[in-house]
Amino acid sequence: DPKYAAAYDYLGACYLSKGDSNRALANFTKAIEFDPKDISAWSGRAGVYLAMGDYEHALADLNEEVRIDPKPAGAYRNIGATYSRMGDYDRSIKAYSDAIRIDPKDIVAYLYRGTSYQKKGDYDNAMLDFSEAIKLNPKNSDGYYGRGTAYAHKGDNDVALLDFNKALTLNPEDADIYYNRGLTYENKNDHVRAIEDFTQAIKRDPKAADYFLNRGMAYGNNGDIDHAVEDFNETIRLDPENVRGYYSRGTAYGIKGDQVRLLADYKKAAELDPRSPSTLIGVAWILATSPDSTLHNGKEAVEYALKACNLDEYKTPYMIDILATAYAEAGNFEAAKQMEQKAIDSETDESQQKNMQMRRALFNQNKPFHQPTPPASHP
């Protein structure tokens, strides 16, 4: 019987499980046509829309599901998940709160609401929700993992490690837990343990570019530049548009003294993210001050530095300092002196002020500033 809505509902679910969104959508729509009160069809079609990234239609279907039957907490959870994907965390929190109101023991709603609080930067409320989830089910690793990330964001690394350790006891194959524990160890400058945890994460998910990226950073911070470059290479292979991968590899090349590759990677990072002041200013610094004189290009350095300072609204002293060095390399010493003084006036760190005053003294003599060999660190 073609009018049997449940059959279309079942077919829709089958096609959805196979990843055939178009046929799933067609069958759920047919089920709704024959039975407009079939909440499973509304929910199923919303799931298809959500998978397709069509959040507007997903919300419309979920709201209709709630209108037909406002009792199931799951519908509110799905509304919350949709708003979360849209980046509207206030509305997602409200929807999860509705789910909890209906079912105060809904662990998933607490976990998801905690995640939304965390994405908003409200780590205290996030910890409360993750703690409630742990209370409801002490054997659920997600609660400990979520609370651990909240503690880490607040800078309470030791307590975060306790939660990550507990989460791994409950779920020893979760790559994300190893990864976040590794980040926490890195925050404590424990590079060896960070590398160990990133390696464990990579074993469980060898296609996660960020795992290689952060292990590369840990290797670099531990002085192992060759392994750092290998990990940055893998980061870029897995994610060819990974800005931090190129920028970090460029920095590693710079430490190895390869200024040509350093500049090439910095420029690639700037090409991929042309609105990142820190990336643009890094290119300007090399073009203006590299110990390899063949790379000097004052005009281009000024262009990159101006873009960076304009995007930053001239708020960051070291960027203004680099703009000054770029002007000096371009031969515009009056502009260089003016910008250097502006940098000095806004800088509060005495050691940085001394470096800036040294460069201003050079500009007063109509001389540009160049890094010595080996290259000096970024100002």
Q: Structural class from helices and strands?
A: mainly alpha
Instruction: Write down the secondary-structure element order.
Output: HHHHHHHHHHHHHHHHHHHHH
Mean pLDDT: 95
Overall 3D geometry? elongated
Main sheet record? none
N-C termini distance: 75 Å
Rounded to the nearest angstrom, the radius of gyration is 27 Å
Low-pLDDT regions: 375-379
Relative helix content: over 70%
Q: Which characteristics define this entry?
A:
single chain, mainly alpha, elongated, disordered C terminus
Descriptive account of the structure:
- It is a single chain.
- With 379 residues, the protein is mainly alpha-helical.
- It is built from 21 helices and no strands.
- It has helices at 5-17, 21-34, 39-52, 55-68, 73-85, 89-102, 107-120, 123-136, 141-153, 157-170, 175-187, 191-204, 209-221, 225-238, 243-255, 259-272, 277-289, 298-312, 317-329, 333-346, 350-364.
- The longest helix is centred in the last third of the chain and has 15 residues, at 298-312.
- The protein is elongated.
- The model is unreliable at 375-379 (pLDDT under 50).
